[in-house]
């Protein structure tokens, strides 16, 4: 028979253990036999350890008799190397165990019977006529309720449909009104934009024309002032000539006294006449007021013809300029009011 080397090596390690080496050879051999080792394997393991095997196997009865005292005197081995022990005998059952078992089995049987009677039997057993009649009545009642609910749902659906139709018509009407209003607002906005653009153009035209009109009016005023200055110069020259002519004449003593007493009023009247002519260029062309020198000369003072023609021209130009300025101011007021 072939020797199993791995088992022999394991048995050799077991026999070399210090706690096992103190036991007898028979106990060690009996333990190895319990591990299914053959006699050749046991002998090989003992030879490797250096222990001689027993001369031969002993009878089983004698071996058991020898093992019992050896087990009594042998030292305690570790749990993994103890010999196999026979199983303990089954425990004996008395009347209390049987009573408990009967109670438990009866309880489970009663519970299973109750569950089967309550839940399983109604599913398996055929229904009785009374049960069928009762089920029929309940089914009819359920059908009547279902049909009533269907009719109610149909009525509610019709009402909702009519309400939705009215709401849809109102919404369509409102949308049409909104579209009309939006169209009117859009047209009004366009008209407003056109009017605003026209007002802007008018204002721009006025802004461009006002400086021109002011420059024109300034030029006209400058020319009129120059003309008035020229007239004043000519008037001064005329008065100077008249005064020179009056002083060179030979008046009487009374007249000489009056002539020498009245030069200052004459100068004052001359300045007053000049200021009157500057403020009123369109006055009468002739002066019928007597001169302070009329008593000495016996003649009336008069304005030359070219000065009368210039005065008439200025009086004709002044209303036209005034009307132009008034129209410009009116147009500016209208533009500011529209903006």
From TrEMBL:
Homology family: Belongs to the peroxin-14 family.
Compartment(s) of residence: Peroxisome membrane
Keyword Membrane included in the entry's annotation: yes
Biased composition (Low complexity): 259-286, 327-339
The protein's name: Peroxisomal membrane protein PEX14
Entry keyword set: Coiled coil, Membrane, Peroxisome, Protein transport, Translocation, Transport
Top-level taxonomy: Eukaryota, Fungi, Dikarya, Ascomycota, Pezizomycotina
Purpose of the protein: Component of the PEX13-PEX14 docking complex, a translocon channel that specifically mediates the import of peroxisomal cargo proteins bound to PEX5 receptor. The PEX13-PEX14 docking complex forms a large import pore which can be opened to a diameter of about 9 nm. Mechanistically, PEX5 receptor along with cargo proteins associates with the PEX14 subunit of the PEX13-PEX14 docking complex in the cytosol, leading to the insertion of the receptor into the organelle membrane with the concomitant translocation of the cargo into the peroxisome matrix.
Positions of region (Disordered): 242-339
Example GO biological process: protein import into peroxisome matrix, docking
GO MF annotations, alphabetized: signaling receptor binding
Peroxisome membrane anchor protein Pex14p N-terminal domain span: 4-48
